[in-house]
Amino acid sequence: RIAEESERAARIVRNLLAFARRQTAERSPQDVADLFTRVLALRTYEFRLNGVDVEMAFERGLPRVLADAGQLQQALLNLVLNAEQAMRGRATRRLEVGASYVADAGAVQITVSDTGHGIEDGNLGRVFDPFFTTRDVGEGTGLGLSICYGIVRDHGGQIAVDSQVGVGTTFALLLPAYMPTAANEELLVAHTEQGERDYVAAMLAGWGFGVAFADNASAALARYRAGNLGAIFIDGGIVAGDVDAWRAARQAKGGSIPLVLTSGAAQGDVAKFGREQAVALLTPPIELRTVRAAVQAALSHDDFGDGRADANETSGVDAAPAEAGRRTGSTEDSTSQSGVSRTGEYV
Ligand SMILES: Nc1ncnc2c1ncn2[C@@H]1O[C@H](COP(=O)(O)OP(=O)(O)OP(=O)(O)O)[C@@H](O)[C@H]1O
Ligand SMILES: [Mg+2]
After folding, report:
1. What CATH architecture is 186-304?
2. What is the pLDDT of residues 186-210, one digit of tens each?
3. What 3-state DSSP class applies to 112?
4. Ligand showing the shortest atom-to-Cα distance for residue 159
């Protein structure tokens, strides 16, 4: 009963947070270093007062990210406030923030590290849950990180945490790097579940593609037949209703528009259709790296990227159906630091 009630409360809060975010969604290309510097400026006084050393490491020439500046700053501020709180009364108080380009995910990675008390193993999987807090009554609502998670996801990104008790904590955000192309063709995202559809669409839009949506099979087919699409991201659930209609529609178009099938099913009609027709299969959970690989399999090299030197290095993806399954968010940083025992998994 109590579990039911708290699940209900959590659901209400999730909806409220989603609603609040949608009210102001207004995105434009943002310079992460500039944005983060302005967040830190808000805390300059407290940093000095509490003896917190701040180190910044922003890679030069970073791509921008398509973001609502206010929301992204809110997310970063929540991470900074948590770091400050975790370092209260600790001997070493060092906050390291930075950003770098992660070519294989086509993403800007933002990191926030502290030398605070750390997070116990048992709590690591719960910190993004609404109302999860270890603070005393009246001290924290436990909403900071759930807001952060929601904002990151709305932007087509991922967030991960790494921590070692007594040593410190690192939060890492991956956000699509904004690299618009001249192409005016849209990418179609068709999925019956709004959450999944919005997530894939936010990634694609974050990279600078124009996106069209469909939430049912007939709308998806109609948009497909209308043309001017660079690629289509169709969920198995959309195809399942009428595989033959999709086959016919693709034949009518010469099968020329690259299809990425998002589906967990390995067998049956839809899977067969995927093997015949898809340039890539995306299996849940949807992640930046795997969607990026699928986009690259789908689009010809010329249409792709903004000419950044290292963006080109990521093109070695097979055009054959690529099993784009789960990969954890291990980065060079988090695996090479001897002091960090666990590798954060992007959620
Ligand atoms: N940098 C960090 N170091 C150690 N623990 C952390 C850190 N960030 C978050 N946590 C843990 O995760 C919990 C949840 O964080 P979250 O920001 O969601 O809520 P809160 O800080 O407790 O409350 P609120 O943000 O609403 O004031 C914290 O109570 C704390 O236990
Ligand atoms: Mg907090």
Report:
1. 3-Layer(aba) Sandwich (3.40)
2. 999 999 999 999 999 999 999 999 9
3. strand
4. 1
